[in-house]
Amino acid sequence: MRPDIGLPDRAATSRETGGELPSGRPLRERRGPGAVTGALAVSRAVTPPAPAAGVARATPDAAPAPRLAAESLDAYFGALHAVKDATLALPDRFVTAIIGPSGCGKSTLLRCLNRMHETVPGARVAGRVLFDGQDIYGRDVNVTAVRQHIGMVFQRPTPFPTMSIHDNVAAGLSTVSPRPSRTEIDAIVEHALHRAALWDEVKDRLRDAATGLSGGQQQRLCIARALAVEPQVLLLDEPTASLDPISAQKVEELVYELRRDMTVVIVTHNMQQAARVSDRTAFMLHGNLVEIAPTKELFTTPRDERTEAYITGRFG
């Protein structure tokens, strides 16, 4: 059953939204035509079964149905048109990289995919973003629920400075209803830290301040915090830009592993990184989504001459 973000079944219409975030109502589950009942139940299974070894996986050029998609998406900062009529589909359990020169709209597009863009004063969005077919900008959608299903990690590590390592990971669980017990929280934290490949490094100092971790550890801690609420999509905005090469490699390995369980979208300036970790790559320029293709195809036989010029270093 698809996650329901509280949007009634009706034909979506074009609209614009911006300004204040709507107050969140509980995410609801649909159980029949017109019947809306129940509250958000974020999965708290702490030992979900791992995908079976050897399970066939779709190739990048035969991607499954999209988990997340943007349709005719425009994003503005006041009068500045930052993203222009972008349409793209993000397949489930695939890593999609978004590349392009500085200021091309990569991070803005990413922030539109879980309604973070509208938190900027004067910012607004037009078009649609569909999560399992539901428009996340619909009138009755719970914004908090959207961000639980579609998590985000930013360029610079952002641990909460007054919280311990344990409490940083558990922070997002405060929005879950019903709130898990203390025992459940401890298990969720451990599971999230395992998934973020950080548990062995911090298991003996969970009550220490998160600010005592290295930069690379802090970034993986932020990823663990996002994973604790079991998102279906994870958005990564240049997650290794401020890290040393060894820490960056650990994050890349983590991204590669996470695609077994979820859809991942990563914005990066590093074309080599995009080639290493992604199944599909999109290229943006001046706010336009120029092309999106399987990663190997985009880097070897791009369809658009602007893409070829960028990946061969003629600009950017």
What does this structure look like?
By secondary structure, the protein is an alpha/beta fold. Helices cover 27% and strands 24% of the residues. It contains ten helices and 13 strands. The protein has helices at 106-112, 143-149, 165-170, 182-195, 199-202, 215-227, 245-258, 271-277, 295-300, 305-311; strands at residues 16-18, 29-32, 35-37, 66-77, 80-91, 95-99, 123-131, 134-135, 150-153, 233-237, 263-267, 280-285, 288-294. The strands form three sheets. Strands 9-10-11-6-12-13 form a six-stranded mixed sheet, with helices on both faces. Strands 1, 4, 5, 7 and 8 form a five-stranded antiparallel sheet that branches. It has a two-stranded antiparallel sheet with strand order 2-3. Helix 4 packs across helix 6 and helix 6 runs parallel beside helix 7 (245-258). The protein is globular, with a radius of gyration of 19 Å. The chain starts with 15 loop residues before the first strand and ends in a 5-residue tail after the last helix.
Question: What order do the helices and strands follow?
Answer: EEEEEEHEEHEHHHHEHEHEEHH
Number of strands: 13
- Determine Rg (CA atoms, Å): 19 Å
- For the biggest β-sheet, the strand order reads 9-10-11-6-12-13
C-alpha termini separation: 43 Å
Beta-strand fraction estimate: 15-25%
Average pLDDT over all residues: 83
Shape: globular
The helix count comes to 10
Amount of helix: 25-40%
Determine the structural class based on helices, strands and strand pairing: alpha/beta
Uncertain runs with pLDDT below 50, 5 residues or more?
A: 7-56
Largest sheet: 6 strands, mixed
